Amino acid sequence: xxxxxxxxxxxxxxxxxxxxxxxxxxxxxxxxxxxxxxxxxxxxxxxxxxxxxxxxxxxxxxxxxxxxxxxxxxxxxxxxxxxxxxxxxxxxxxxxxxxxxxxxxxxxxxxxxxxxxxxxxxxxxxxxxxxxxxxxxxxxxxxxxxxxxxxxxxxxxxxxxxxxxxxxxxxxxxxxxxxxxxxxxxxxxxxxxxxxxxxxxxxxxxxxxxxxxxxxxxxxxxxxxxxxxxxxxxxxxxxxxxxxxxxxxxxxxxxxxxxxxxxxxxxxxxxxxxxxxxxxxxxxxxxxxxxxxxxxxxxxxxxxxxxxxxxxxxxxxxxxxxxxxxxxxxxxxxxxxxxxxxxxxxxxxxxxxxxxxxxxxxxxxxxxxxxxxxxxxxxxxxxxxxxxxxxxxxxxxxxxxxxxxxxxxxxxxxxxxxxxxxxxxxxxxxxxxxxxxxxxxxxxxxxxxxxxxxxxxxxxxxxxxxxxxxxxxxxxxxxxxxxxxxxxxxxxxxxxxxxxxxxxxxxxxxxxxxxxxxxxxxxxxxxxxxxxxxxxxxxxxxxxxxxxxxxxxxxxxxxxxxxxxxxxxxxxxxxxxxxxxxxxxxxxxxxxx
Length: 593
Hints:
By secondary structure, the protein is of the alpha/beta class. The protein has a seven-stranded mixed β-sheet. It has a six-stranded parallel β-sheet with strand order 1-10-3-2-14-25. A hairpin with a 5-residue loop joins strand 12 and strand 13 (about 275-280). Helix 3 packs parallel to helix 16, helix 7 crosses helix 16 (about 570-585) and helix 12 (about 455-475) crosses helix 15 (about 515-520). The termini are far apart. The relative contact order is 0.20.
């Protein structure tokens, strides 16, 4: 079979845009499988008509309303509920009975499922790179590659966090959902290759961010079952926590009578499209907390009237607070991959081993394919891996009709094509910055997102250095032993990666002499995007939104750079950390945590 054709399918299906799926119904949740009695559908909510109706005692009010039951929102809710009433609103469903979420072998399927109830919501940045947002209780921990590693000491210091409390918060997460991986053969080959080319020392298995080569943690256990942020809700006080799934928050409500606006509640729609209102208690310290992620939190602020005045007025959004920095400073860590074909099937593995260089280049790997031959043939329209080279069409000509024609003309490839793995190269702390704009007032629609990958020359320089490092690793005996490569054909591997339709960026094939062009042509995401609500610009160091009362943002939208080699550990920690900090500041020793 044509090897380039095989790689086209492999790169999307077995890498990160990987769109191989069984039927959408296989991933739908069973409504009886909510695991905890405090999790209910949004339609079960009894909504008051006004704040005064809530305060009359006829309807419940809450000390905290958390919007977004994701990586930060779940540990935050579990922690705050120890002492206060908490309403957690999640726009997606529950993950517990979703087999596409729960098992490593189905890792790619949630990303492929474009149905309205899928655990992931696809978006394509204006750069032409496919990406995904989580839409499920547990957030990104339900759809990611599972790698777990802490932020560096320098990162913690730079963030201004209390190191002692940070070091209490990480282990609390780790005891519940983090495991030591059983190292797969492909990951062992990467480990040995990294050490041979000088990415040393070997730091063994550790959660810590250390220069050299290491094996990190994973949220997949030995049986391949995923453990998510939603599992942390087991630590909540069930008498004080209410979780609503399929609760799509439309906007935050404010009292604007005083000089400074004050958040009072939220408006949300349930799974049937009916509208509800939930209100904060009038007690001192009650707050609404946005934990919607780097896309959702700036989007929610703008939909609620906090953002650049001119942009809000274009969409007839009433301005509550003019802040030109909302949605600005968006970053995504660019990822480039090299596909390495093998002479035999390779055991499936996601990220377990990482090489960390002082210049901010990280080398990782993934391998194999976990699904049956039937499942890769399930069509998903424009998100299907088998679609032809849309990247050869200029952005203005990528019409719905053109996409349909490609989808209809796609070629099925046999399961035998899936033999090989990837070596991944990621740039830490990119200097290239972008922005987020609303395109309409529908919260269910993605905003317009631009990351400006490699617009800064230093990012490009580091990418080239990383690809050259990958070249050295591929040429080590650890990979040559069971791959179809030899020391002379690395350029062929690069051309295979260029020709695969991994993004919508116009390609320059047969130009492997230009590593800069290769980086630009093959850029994809590893879902570590961040920013849009920066500290000092949109929120203060306590993550309180500047210029308004009773509103915070606690998630990756506040980050200026992504922590560690993977942000999930630190976002999870942040939820616990800020929950403890809020409780201790509000109650002191009486908090009991």
